[in-house]
């Protein structure tokens, strides 16, 4: 068992989500940065989809009541065990009574803490993920929460530390495919000119973008758009002209035109981009 001693802005349980429920109006949710979740699980010998803790910015403290094996990935929040600094993206061992603490990351937005055996909370529709939009899944973590640990897998960790590329502190370059509603704009290619920046109005549902440099996005078609399905990475443009890149907890339908869709491989990068950080879109396809 692990006990939550402290929580920063937000900490939730996440796995790789609950796909297959779109026809019931339920989105997949799951880790915002899927690659970081997968890596944390691989480091401790778990299957990649085991549930872990997603930590916004940092500020989390976990107290071990039994021997546990952990790994911290994603945003490189300075991490200590009983005050002793430990490595990022490395295998950590906590003995009973020891405490893991995450300070606040200076780059990136979300860190992931995986424990060997996974966080064994009850599943909802096949997933242990918290969906912040629908309210499905376990509640966000609070001080005093006790997190059960699942049985250890048969696989064993094969490395002590994983080399990972540093998250960018400046411009984040994101690839996107134009459409499907690019014809609703006077010049949809303006999305790829200049730079945007992530606004403070960003969460697990989506990252809102404000113009930093470049032409605005202007609508050519002003009529209402019938509600249609929304995919992960869709860049929807509301009447304000400030696009929103949909992330893990995005709605399954929407009524504003989607000017482009972020490549699946680059969605994790948007999920790690901090408010105020510049973003540049590159057209592919």
UniProtKB/TrEMBL annotation:
Transmembrane parts of this sequence: none
Pfam families with a match to the protein in the record: CT_A_B
Domain of life from the UniProt record: Bacteria
Chain ranges of the Carboxyltransferase domain: 23-285
A molecular function GO annotation: hydrolase activity
SMART domains for the chain: AHS2
Keywords: ATP-binding, Hydrolase, Nucleotide-binding, Transferase
InterPro entries: CT_A_B, Cyclophilin-like_dom_sf, PxpC
UniProt key word Translocase: no
Gene3D superfamilies: Cyclophilin-like
Keyword Hydrolase attributed: yes
UniProt cross-references to PANTHER family, sorted A to Z: 5-OXOPROLINASE SUBUNIT C
Protein name: Biotin-dependent carboxyltransferase family protein
Native source organism of the sequence: Nocardia gamkensis
